[in-house]
Amino acid sequence: MNKAQLAPSILSADFANLARDIELVTEAGAEIIHVDVMDGHFVPNLTIGIPVLQAIRKITTRTLDVHLMISNPDFMVERYIDAGADIITVQYEASCHLDRTLNRIKDGGVRAGIALNPHSPVHLLEEIACVCDMVLIMSVNPGFGGQSFIASSMKKIMKARELLDSENPGGLVEVDGGINSDNIAGVAGAGADILVAGSAIFGSTDPAAEFRSMNSVIEKVNR
Ligand code: DX5
Ligand code: ZN
Predict the structure, then answer these.
(1) Which of 36, 41, 176, 181 has the CB geometry, 3.0–4.6 Å to 196, for a possible disulfide?
(2) Which ranges in 128-204 belong to alpha helices (H)?
(3) What 3-state class would DSSP assign to 138?
(4) Is the pTM of this model over 0.85?
């Protein structure tokens, strides 16, 4: 049985009070903070970038899990490494030279992930799964928080787990999008190691309590 972890996504946090919101979920036990970078090109939304990541790095020692929803990530990975990322995930669909990009991330001492959009099948990763540290299954179309979990993602989570077990047994499966208290047990049970949740946590009236509550469901699956 996997030991899954819940990673709050600050996309749904209060951007005017990021330090406070990160502190809230950290106090509640979060070990991983998910940071969504969007460029207004790969996805139709613009969020945060290098200066904000640098600022967050100064106020937390937690794992910063940086999800790059940007075109041509190859041009930018060194700058995110320098800004303090612990994990950098690039979108499969945005990367022309994925093997090179993943190796550059790892050469920088940072764990490297590949994210797959809902339309991209897991078998695309057969030859590259051994190079990455993590496969991120997007369970919504990237670009926005607060969307509904796409049900067919469950099958992809299981396929990603199987692929990694065969090609890269230490590799992690992350799932991102539409995770809430209703579906979190199923997602963890399907083989997810890191479960990202944004609006379910920061959209609630008490983010710390919601983190604890969702995390306790994962811990039951872990047992
Ligand atoms: C969506 C982002 C997600 C987002 C998830 O493109 O990659 O990380 O924050 O938000 P929720 O949990 O609200 O679906
Ligand atoms: Zn994300």
Answers:
(1) 176
(2) 153-167, 184-189, 199-202
(3) strand
(4) yes
